[in-house]
Amino acid sequence: MPTFAYVCPPTLNDCLKLLKENPGAKPYAGGTDLMVKMRDHAVSPQMLVDLKKIDKLKGIREDAEGNIIIGALTTHAEISESPVVLEKYPFFAHACRWVGSQQIRNRGTIGGNICNGSPAAETLPSLYILDARIHLESISSTRTLPIREFFCGPGKTCILPGEIVTAVEIPNISVEFSGSYHRQGRRKVVCIAMVTAAAMWRQDETSPSGMRFSIALGSVAPTVVVAKNAENYLNECAVCSDDVIEHAAMTALKDASPISDIRTTCDYRNDLVYVLTKRCLKDIICGGRELK
Amino acid sequence: MKQAETGKKAWRNDAYSKVTGQAEYCDDLKVHGMAHAVPVYSSEVHAEIISIETEEARSFPGVLSVITAGDIPGEIRYGQIYKDYHMLADDRIRFNGDVIAIVVAQKREQAVAAAKLVRLNAKPLPPLLDPEEALKDGASLVHEDHIFEGKSCNITNHHKIRRGNVSAAFKECDFVIERKFNTQYIEHSYLEPESGLCIPRYDGVMEVMGSMQHPFSTRRFVAAILGAKLSDVEVRSVAVGGGFGGKDDTAALVCARAALAAKILNKPVKMTYDREWSFRESYKRHPYIIYYKMGIKNGKIHAAEVKIIADSGAYCSVTPWVTWRSTVQCCGPYEVEHVHCDTYGVYTNNVFTGAMRGFGSPQLNFAIEQLVDIAAEKLGISPVEFRKQNMLRQGSTTITGQVLDTHTVSLDQVFEETLKRMDYESKLAKCSRGRADENSDELYGTGLALSYRGMSLGAEGMDFNSAIINVQPDGSILLEAAIHENGQGAESAFILIAAGELGTSVDRIRYRQPSTSNIPDGGTTVASRGTIMGGGAVVTATRELKRKLAMALCCRLSCNPGDIRFFNDRIYGKTDDVFLTYEQAVHEMYLQQEIPYAFGVFKAPKVSWDEETGKGNAYFTWVYGCQAVELTVNRKTGKVKLLNMTAAHEVGRAINMPMILGQIYGGMAMGAGYGLMEEVKVKDGIIQNTNFNTYKIPRAADLPEMQAIVIENGDPLSPSGAKGIGEPANELMAPAIANAVYNATGIRYYSSPLKITVENENNNK
Questions:
Q1: Are residues B616 and B565 part of one domain?
Q2: Where are the domains of chain A?
Q3: What is the count of structural domains for chain B?
Q4: Distance from the CA of B486 to the CA of which of A111, A131, B555, B674 falls in 20 to 30 A?
Q5: Contact across the interface for B637 and A190, Cβ inside 8 Å
Q6: Does any domain span residue B220?
Q7: B586 & B631 share domain
Q8: Kind of pairing, strands B565-567 and B570-572?
Q9: Residue of B677, B694, B765 with shortest CB distance to A187
Q10: Candidates A184, A250, A275; nearest CB to B762
Q11: B54 and B110 share a domain?
Q12: Does the CB of A22 have a partner CB in chain B at under 8 Å?
């Protein structure tokens, strides 16, 4: 491990100031990705700015409008056990349970998972279909970005120098909806997924079936992708029959551009895109309440 | 008082220290003035070394020395069978894990940083990566000076079996099955990577501690590199975090390199490998290519023709021994009249291969046990029936001509017990065979596999072991044996055996870890030989001690030596009211100037082997096992879900039952990994997955309920009655899974790990 300076500022302001003044500094949350990258010399920050004293970045709260705001330092374990997340978006809580091991879930944070920008990140497909918004803050400004605009490549995000993610906001869904998440790895635990998929419908009287669909796929492209072709197909169908689900799952393949790597082959990823998309759709259509 | 019972209760002498984290492993040890050594690798797979530039690394802060082959005072090359391993590469890089230099620094971090500054100038050579190519005449040579049967080639060994007349026999057969099988490289995945700490002692002895499973092998490697006598190297034991056969050559090499640095600097040096180095450099289980032809006549396996090609990688290690076992066991536990087997070990520029739990049997069982199921199906009978028609029974003759009549042949027993416990035959009828229920994508299957296994080394090597028992003045007892504790519980087994023989409590006996300087070389702790060989020596030593005690104490106990009895933690005369405590007994012995000390040796009964014909009594005794599995296969994703794994093993006499169960459960789990997920992926000679994030082993969540059935038939040729369980438990689950997957999907997989194809025909359009 290379040498580096370590600071643990007590306030967000101090932290943002340090990040601005030291271009070689990196924010440090759970460290479950960062430490490994530093050991492998994939990144070599001159300074680590530990965020752990900044209570403002911790915890999950629901505001008056029903939006859920998850502080960037909230751990995967906390999200997966959170009563409010479990009640409103159980599939998202469930997705957080797939992250690493219990130890990693106790340390790793949602902010870190997002900023790490892995296309295989367990949290991302669900956040995509939930239209999550990323709160960013630097010493001079604050802004909010839709998650779909946040990534520009594998491990690459739109974070500007001196900026950190402070929270993830899941906007309230005022209509009826149903969501689901599926993933497959080589084994059941401590295993990065080969493919991830999340799907959701929300009530929408303007669409022929009364449902508007969103589907996101992970580990099949440089970033998590929205399965636009499959979404468009579903949003034009009047009924969600088994045949329609079948065709939608097949259409999702057009939205994926997987590669072969050490985890699995391109062909098998394609197989999984079809199977996992179908599982998600079956879950939300059979398991969820039909509107019409 | 804890009775010395061999029964149900879990007992380990080292449980407390290991559970509480007090046990000290090599990397936990710190010595004043200790320096740290790390290996330097190159990016080459096969190359001619022109020069190694070390100047820049030498001037890095904290660096004490950068050592290359030229600095070795003793032998540069060493090895267990052939001296072909360059402990530091001198002329060529032969595989990607070759170490070109070691960097020694005050701090490990400094050594790691400086290692990157060592530069290699080399001329790359085309690597030889396909063992079948390497076998061909005119193939480039991995070792230019290697000669086999009078000619330069890449063959490390050729074992044969010539039994009956195969070509004539195939003509008599009702049908012949011909298949090719491939098995993969796997990593041992011991918890603790290699580590060695070497201390140059004031008396001129190099003291070595390390994570290893064969201290005497380590001593030979260390003595060779230093050019020292064996008596000038003392290897001491520390707690070891697992071996599975993998802590021999590489573990010894790590200690040898640390010793070299310690000698050159004249200060203690520690060398601890990280996981990536261990994956890159340490030997793996041999991948096999197996061409198998099996002929069936009247429902019997009439003839078998087998060609086995084992990729030895860049170095020989113990390839001739591993492949010898494959040869002897090449027809599985069945009677076959006509057998022709040719087994080759072959050098390539891949990672080298050597001993791993199973030692040549998991690869062959993967082939044989599938072939047996294929044959049964062709015959239109159940695989259970077919096995019963062909399996070895009491008095049967093996394919090497050995008559099995010196012990209980319990193959039918393990088979019947497994069938009964699993309700196997009714489950077999329920298998999906490619057709799932309408509403489900899950295909159900069950499968099993049978094996017999020669115990200990057999005709592959010298086989004996010794033990020392030394009663102290207060009646406490020190016990030691020339078998190494790798984490498997050997020490506990020996204490239980000694306590049983002496009728004492286990609390009376302390196990002393011997060093290579105080106990004779008893061979390596491999081949499931710890309990049978070490335990045999412990029994011999305790019996000698009892003889000495009886001779010295008979007057005091007013009886003949033959009347003396050892039980209840005391020594009794003819009647129960006449006895001595151990403390009194030792006092009496000292008065007589007698030392209550005994040295016991167990020599394995004679075995035989003819290299040309493959005839002989290959092993002095055998064990028998059966494992079965139930699973489902998702036909859309190919995902296998294990539902239940069951094993029945005959172990001779059970010494420490919970440890036996642990071996069986662990063996099945490891076997499931071999069958379904584990694979060291090699691309152009370079290992792609060098840590557990990419090399997947099964975890608890992936494993189903497991049942273990232990069958005891004390072996007359084993002094303790015990045989072994370490390897038998790990040679059956992969073929059982392959058979179950076939019964579920109707598709045969001839390569391990199984890569199951899925049904989504339309989806890639």
A1: no
A2: 5-50, 55-170, 177-287
A3: 3
A4: B674
A5: no
A6: yes
A7: no
A8: antiparallel
A9: B677
A10: A250
A11: yes
A12: no
Question: Is B398 part of any domain?
Answer: yes
Tokens 């170490």 belong to: B99
Neighboring chain A residues of B698 at a CB cutoff of 8 Å: 187
Amino acid in position A223: T
Contacts of B163 (CB under 8 A, 6+ apart): B336, B337, B338, B339, B340, B399, B400, B401, B613, B614, B615
Q: Does B754 reside within a domain?
A: no
| Any B CB within 8 A of A98 CB | no
Candidates B109, B636, B698; nearest CB to A187: B698
DSSP state of B121: E
Contacts of A275 in chain B (CB under 8 A): 636-637, 760
Two tokens at B204? 């001129």
Q: Which CATH superfamily includes the segment(s) A177-287? A: CO dehydrogenase flavoprotein, C-terminal domain (3.30.390.50)
Could you tell me which chain B residue has the CA closest to the CA of A266?
B764
The parent domain of residue B218 ranges over 33-125+194-273
Q: What is the ipTM of this complex?
A: 0.83
Tens-digit pLDDT profile for chain A (292 aa)?
578 999 999 999 999 999 999 999 999 999 999 999 998 889 999 999 999 999 999 999 999 999 999 999 999 999 999 999 999 999 999 999 999 999 999 999 999 999 999 999 999 999 999 999 999 999 999 999 999 999 988 889 999 999 999 999 999 999 999 999 999 999 989 999 999 999 999 999 999 999 999 999 999 999 999 999 999 999 999 988 999 999 999 999 999 999 999 899 999 999 999 999 999 999 998 754 443 3
| Nearest alpha-carbon partner for B260 in B112, B78, B85, B67 | B67
Residue B62 lies in a domain: yes
B155-163 vs B338-347, strand pairing mode: antiparallel
What is the CATH architecture of A5-50? 2-Layer Sandwich (3.30)
Q: Does domain A55-170 have CATH number 3.30.465.10?
A: yes
Task: Give the count of Cβ contacts less than 8 A between chain A and B.
Answer: 50
